[in-house]
Amino acid sequence: MSPAITSISAFTQLKEVGLVVTQYQEFLGDDPEPNGRMAAGYISTPVFNMTDTAQAVLALAATILFVSTRGNVFGFTSRLNTLNGITLALLLGLCAWIYFGISPSMNSAVEAYRTAAAANDTQEAALTYKSMMIIHETSEPLYGARAILVFILIIASGILSGTPKTKTIQS
Asked: Phi and psi for 119 in degrees, rounded to 5?
């Protein structure tokens, strides 16, 4: 969620600053809108990459913990532990897909766009920008789904951590 907030802030605020990214000035001109978007991309890309890496590692660590305790992370079996296991499996798969599939594709498209823009190749920049936007449209709901899965895990784990062992329903 925080990378999205960072991006929204960067993309919104940087176009208002009126900056010009000199490396792309021939392509972007003096218009603050595309210059702000270009600068915001330089800010948000590493934030997304860092978040993708951290979430993939943490999802793997949580899965290892869950598997090593046979789903009895809190010392008992319940329907919430089953929900946690299913949610965790979905989260791990989604994080892997984002980390190994979506992120590399997006990073390649971003770099191709930057290269074309720096060379003032309007035709190639338009093609790579379109490719970048297609990936963005695919990734946006995946990032939202990942956030929802994390929230489900937090809520279910919070309930489980405060539930006395004697009050649980045995599976």
From this structure: -85, 0
Contact 84, 142 (CB under 8 A): no
In a domain, 97, yes or no: yes
> How many domains does the chain contain in total?
1
The answer to whether the beta carbons of residues 69 and 160 sit under 8 Å apart is no
CA 40, CA 35: separation in Å to the nearest integer? 8
| Cα–Cα nearest to 34, from 11, 55, 57 | 11
∠ CA 39-35-33, nearest 5°, is 120
On whether residue 11 sits in a domain, the answer given is: no
The parent domain of residue 98 ranges over 49-165
pLDDT in tens, 108-119: 999 999 999 999
Asked whether 106 and 136 are in contact (CB, 8 A), the reply is yes
Distance in Å from the first CA to the final CA of the chain: 34
- For residues 18 and 63, give the distance between their C-alpha atoms in angstroms, rounded to a whole number: 46
Residue 106 within a domain: yes
Of 33-42, 132-141, 155-164, the one with minimum mean pLDDT is: 155-164
- Asked if residue 25 is part of any domain, the answer here is no
